[in-house]
Write a structure and sequence with these properties.
The protein is α+β, with helices and mostly antiparallel strands. The chain contains 13 helices and 19 strands. It has 2 domains: 153 residues, Creatinase/prolidase N-terminal domain (Creatine Amidinohydrolase, Chain A, domain 1, 3-Layer(aba) Sandwich), CATH 3.40.350; 267 residues, Creatinase/methionine aminopeptidase superfamily (Creatine Amidinohydrolase, Alpha-Beta Complex). The structure holds manganese (II) ion.
Length: 432
């Protein structure tokens, strides 16, 4: 509760006097006919007041010098509640939520149309609530985007947020361990997905993005999520799956051999990716530029690819002047991203972003996730036969602190021997 009030104050005090804030939550999305996807409120709504029910609009305005925060919510309605579930309603919202006043959504047109007359500037995020967008359009006031201010705030996590992110990272780590324990040669990607996701749901959590479970060559497809192939003896499986706790995402990737034993070529690539990942994590220091971890991981990968004889060129050529050299044939994505209420969280910093580079500060949470991919299906580049069909990524969630990086997903092992000893040890006799 305290957290929300502090956030609201910090945000609102950054806005001009003659402004009003009108931020809608996410709309409901339909899956088929009248059946909906599980509802997820907008991250801005969750950040500003924690309201997680549909249709709400957050409002804030100044009256005689002080800010008033307010929320429009679905009113109590027995008929609707019989079908859709109980509602907090207007009274519940105004007495139990970190806001000053609450209104019914049925009055939104009347109240907001009247209110906006007194303000020259409207801070809103269009595109989620067409009625609100129309009211704002009719007013003729200047519309400004509040996201730059909010995103800069969201980048630094409070103590309370860090606690939730630790919980989220811990659940995802334990889910991966569960997956390793129940893995066997011939397991379906979908079975492994279900083991991991049922760990989330049995802990009252849910996935924070579509789980990626890719066996063998499927691991070389970065956003593979059909998860419908059997993983055969001798193959690795790459699992990239995270969950949410009060909206806060975790995002973790491990890669393991389904038969419990890495082959020598698999070990060679795995050890290289692991060294790159550790170098990336160690570069996550207060004051370092965002790109430091990408550079550190990339340098290890470029040299390693030469040492394994995969790249036959100089280090300079392998790395490239702008970290765009030949190693990018096998490592095509960024080394990490911000993590928070969104899995690819706000605040920029991703490779290729045009905005000025972010400097790492205490309280930021990000991922470090280098990988190497040798898809046997690739025809554009030469894939060495020794490594054909290997795709490996290792990803951890990292909190930046004044005393160095803290790995929030450290409960999940990533050393070869630790992983090998876990695989299959949670199977019953009949399965093993
Ligand atoms: Mn990630």
């Amino acid at each position: 509760m305290e957290d929300y009030r502090i956030r609201q104050e910090l945000f609102l005090n950054d806005l001009p006097n003659d402004s009003i804030v009108l931020i809608p939550t996410n709309p409901i999305s339909y899956r088929s006919n009248d059946t909906t996807y599980p509802y997820r409120a907008s991250s801005y709504m969750l950040y500003l007041c924690g309201w997680d029910a549909p249709e709400a609009v957050f409002m804030a305005y100044r009256t005689s010098g002080t800010w008033v925060t307010s929320i429009f919510v679905q009113p109590r309605d027995t008929k609707a509640e019989i079908w859709e579930g109980r509602r907090v309603g207007v009274e519940g919202a105004s007495s139990n939520w970190p806001i000053d006043e609450a209104h019914s959504l049925t009055d939104i047109d009347e109240i907001i149309s009247e209110k906006v007359k007194n303000f020259n500037k409207i801070y809103s995020i269009p595109g989620s609530n067409s009625l609100l967008d129309q009211i704002i359009h009719k007013s003729g006031s200047e519309v400004l985007d509040p996201r730059e201010i909010l995103d800069n705030m969201r980048v630094i996590k409070s103590e309370g947020e860090i606690k939730l992110m630790k919980k989220s990272a811990s659940l995802a780590s334990l889910a991966h361990i569960e997956g390793m324990k129940k893995t066997f040669s011939g397991i379906g990607e979908w079975e492994l997905q279900s083991i991991i996701e049922s760990y989330f749901s049995s802990n009252k959590s849910c996935t924070s993005y579509n789980s990626i479970v890719g066996g063998g060559d499927n691991a070389t497809i970065l956003h593979y999520n059909s998860n419908d192939i059997v993983v055969n003896e001798g193959n690795l499986v790459l699992v990239d799956a995270g969950c949410e706790v009060y909206g806060y995402a975790s995002d973790i990737t491990r890669t393991w051999p389904v038969n419990g034993k890495f082959t020598i070529p698999q070990k060679e690539i795995y050890s290289l990716v692991l060294r790159a990942e550790i170098a990336g994590i160690n570069a996550c220091q207060v004051g370092a530029p965002w790109s430091a971890m990408h550079h550190a991981a990339s340098e290890v990968l470029a040299q390693g690819l030469i040492d394994l004889g995969i790249l036959k060129c100089s280090f300079e050529e392998a790395l490239g002047e702008n970290y765009d050299g030949k190693f990018r044939n096998f490592f095509m994505h960024g080394t990490g991203h911000m993590l928070g209420l969104d899995v690819h969280d706000v605040g920029g910093g991703r490779q290729g972003d045009k905005s000025p580079e972010r400097i790492l500060q205490s309280g930021m949470v990000l991922t470090v996730e280098p990988g190497l991919y040798f898809g046997s299906w690739r025809t554009d580049i030469e894939i060495p036969s020794r490594y054909s069909g290997i795709g490996i990524r290792i990803e951890d969630d990292v909190l930046i602190t004044d005393t160095g990086p803290v790995v929030l997903t450290s409960e999940c092992p990533k050393e070869i021997s630790e992983i090998e000893s876990l695989i299959g040890n949670g199977l019953s006799e009949n399965n093993a």
